[in-house]
Amino acid sequence: MTLAEQQKQLLATLAPLKDAQARFAWLVEQARQRPILPPEFRTDAYRVQGCLAKLWFVPEFRDGLCYFRSESDSLVVKSIAGLLCDFYSGHEPAAVAAHHPDFLTSVGITQHMTPNRRHTLTRIWEQIREFALSKAAAAS
After folding, report:
1. Whole-angstrom Cα distance, residue 45 to residue 56?
2. Domain count, the chain
């Protein structure tokens, strides 16, 4: 499935939820179901700097595709980071780098975030994009 198709599917899932609170509840429930990141990845080497909550980000590159995992000590941060990690995992680097998550605005995800949570969303997107760009450049 392409990122555009995945985006359409995600928006179709979120659109029927009546308000921002319902959407965040859905995101948090998704975060609760994610596997916990193993302790060997919850170290400073994987820590995303600039976030108030502790956030760990693990990028991987296998068989020409990017994969991302994350963990946080905050369930809301875990849900936001996990959403992006799940969305972009399993795609080619160039596609990942070119597909900005601004589509989340259309379903009210970003507008109702606190400034700190919007910052976290930006930081995790930057990490995803930087990793994808580095892998795309290496493939050229």
Report:
1. 9
2. 1
Longest CA pairwise span in the chain (Å): 45
The predicted-structure confidence for 25-43, as pLDDT tens digits, reads as follows: 898 899 999 999 999 999 9
pTM metric for this prediction:
0.91
Give 6's contacts (C-beta < 8 A, 6+ positions apart).
87
> 55 pLDDT exceeds 90?
yes
Spatial CB neighbours of 21, under 8 Å, sequence gap ≥ 6: none
3-state secondary structure of 70: strand
Strand partners, 58: 69
Residue 51 near residue 119, CB atoms below 8 Å: yes
Residue 91 belongs to domain with CATH number: 3.90.1010.10
Range of the domain at 134: 3-139
